């Protein structure tokens, strides 16, 4: 029990130190980006600290697994470099017990990563979206600005004389639309009032009231004049990125049973991060074995490259799921299976059975050489 506490403490302490360093690096990068948006006027300065705090769970999605991986690698590397592992093995402490202790640390990381990706991060993302919606309302970030002609995304130009109620209500609205010849005729709309609304699909519309619409080529005499009480003009559709961001803020329970590729990809991504911790446990223990003469950081570079390959493969699988290029039942599970095979091969190479077989084969070869 004493050895268990010692090894557990050494591993947890190293993982925590690595996590703090990585978190500081990632938060600094995110802080620079948010500060740049505030300097450009996209967000008020009062929201900088709040947005930074709300991004910590998203950063922890990547930091928790890699801090565990590097932390165990550093801790085991030091124990091997100082010959402490050799003493433990000489006292009958088997590699399987080392794996068991590492699995205990991995269980803690697994619980934290699962709680973060499945529950905390979606909740925080929903809060962040509400904050950004308030930012847009408070700062008038909508595409329409009073007293200026503004080009909309659907080949239209709008002019609003006055905007009240935090950008929701407009007075004396002018909209000129000039679509391609095969998609309709030019039109001009003038209305006394208008307001911005968002449809359930995420698209933004300008609802006008008490106005007149002129349709047709004004150089001709056959244009139409129509009086209306209410009229709607589409400003912009929600982009694919915005739709996916909205899905990333959905509770995990609402993602189950969906046939939407974006929701399937998001669900598998949330499950993939804690699952990767289990596979990393099996992978990092044999990778941490070093010769004391090599130094404690001898396996750092290949280990990081292996982890990056794992992460990039999961990211590629996620993109393929979102685009519908691979079926849901393969998805990221194929990546986990591949890494599980690699981890199993590492464990087998370090096992006594493999060493015995290797010794027997070498002995046979020596006999055959005589």
Question: Can you walk through the features of this model?
Answer:
Keywords: Cell inner membrane, Cell membrane, Membrane, Transmembrane, Transmembrane helix, Transport. The chain crosses the membrane at residues 12-32, 52-77, 98-120, 271-290, 297-314, 326-349. Its main location: membrane. The two termini are 50 Å apart. The model is unreliable at 137-142 and 365-370 (pLDDT under 50). Strands 1-2-3-4-5-6 form a 6-stranded antiparallel beta sheet, with no helix packed on it. With 370 residues, it is α+β, with helices and mostly antiparallel strands. The protein has a domain at 148-239. The longest helix has 45 residues, at 95-139. The protein has helices at residues 2-39, 48-54, 56-81, 84-90, 95-139, 240-248, 261-287, 300-323, 333-349, 352-369, and strands at residues 149-151, 156-164, 169-177, 187-198, 204-215, 224-236. The protein is built from 10 helices and 6 strands, in the order H-H-H-H-H-E-E-E-E-E-E-H-H-H-H-H. 59% of the residues lie in helices and 16% in strands.
Mean pLDDT across the residues is 83
Main structural class: alpha+beta
Topology, number of strands: 6
Q: Largest beta sheet: what is the strand line-up?
A: 1-2-3-4-5-6
